[in-house]
Every structure is written in structure tokens, then in C-alpha cells.
Amino acid sequence: MNSNSNLGKKNQNMNAFRILLIVLAFFALSCKEEVVPFETAHENLAAKLLAENQILLEEYLKEDPKPNWKVFSESLDALGANGHPKLKVWAETLRPFVPANGADLETSYEKISKIQEILIQIKTEVPNQSKYNRFYCPMVDKSWLMTGREVKNPYAPEMRDCGELVQ
Q1: What's the predicted TM-score (pTM) here?
Q2: Residue 86, domain member (yes or no)
Q3: Which domain holds residue 83?
Q4: DSSP symbol at 167
Q5: Distance between alpha carbon 36 and the CA centroid of its chain, in Å?
Q6: 136-143: long-range contacts, CB 8 A cutoff, minimum separation 24
Q7: Closest CA to 121 of 162, 161, 154, 91
Q8: Is residue 5 one of the residues assigned to a domain?
Q9: Do 138 and 156 form a contact (C-beta atoms < 8 A)?
Q10: In-domain check, residue 152
Q11: Is the residue at 102 inside a domain?
């Protein structure tokens, strides 16, 4: 009789464990982050930020670059203030990388690289941003977004054509 009661207790414990697992699995699945769709206004804010990035990178391609981060920064503020949770997180993540002094090129290049990584995420996840292409330079191990298909490396003034279009 003892072995039967032990077996019954084991079965009860296993059933309780199974129920607990089911409850925990249901709870974990119900806690998934809500996916908020991107509306046309969100797409336009992302497009504006990418357009400002294009202007900045074109400035870095010049002989004596004098980047002005003001409009990019304003576009970033608009992105963060729009109410979409994902765009807000991206704006908050981008903010520390906006160079305070764009004239300090060495510091700017590293910050631009970090900005490009986040902009690549935005381009990938926000619909209708196909105007911009991703490029990669293995010599400096950095990516960037620009329009067109021609390589114009903003990181290496001595090798503007170093890089490749990434599909």
C-alpha cells in the first residue's frame, strides 16, 4: 500500500508541475511586446532622418568638410517625439552619437559609424525606405547608407571608392 500511495503522490506532483509549466508558458507568451505598426507619418519621419543623413555624408565627402548636425538633430527630436515606441527608442539610442562638434573629424567618424548601424535598422524595419542602399567598406570595417549604387566612402578620404554595395 505504501508504494501505491508514493506513486499517487508522484503523479499528483507531476500533474501539478505540468499545470505550472502551462501557466508559465501562457504568461510568457502573453507578455510579448505589442507590435505597433508604422503609419505614413512614421515612414515620413524616418525618410526625413535618412535624407538628413545623406546630406551629412555628402558633406563628409568634400575636401574640407564642415558638417552641420543641427537639422539632423531636429529630425531626430521629431522622430523621438512622435509617439511610436520603436522610433522613440531609436531616437534615444541615436542621440548620444550626434557629434557636438562636427569639425572634429576623427571623433565624428566613429560616431557616424554608430549612427549608420542604427539607421540601417530603421531602413530595414520601417516600410518604404528603399531609396537608400547599404554600403560596406572592409578596410575600415564600417557600413553606411546613401542613395544610388556608386560607392562613396565617407570614412576614408584617401579611398572614396573603397567599399561595396550590400544587397
Answers
A1: 0.78
A2: yes
A3: 40-128
A4: -
A5: 16
A6: 136/163, 136/164, 136/166, 137/162, 137/163, 137/164, 138/163, 138/164, 142/113, 142/116, 143/113, 143/116, 143/117
A7: 91
A8: no
A9: no
A10: no
A11: yes
Query: Long-range contacts: 107-114, Cβ < 8 Å, 24+?
Result: 108/60, 108/67, 109/154, 109/155, 112/56, 112/57, 112/60, 112/144, 112/154, 112/155, 113/142, 113/143, 113/144, 113/155
pLDDT digits over 142-157, tens only? 999 999 999 999 988 8
Cell of 128: 518604404
H-helix segments, the chain: 2-30, 40-60, 70-81, 85-94, 105-125
- The pLDDT tens digits of the residues spanning 61-105 come to 998 888 899 999 999 999 999 989 999 999 999 999 998 866 667
- What domain count does the chain have? 1
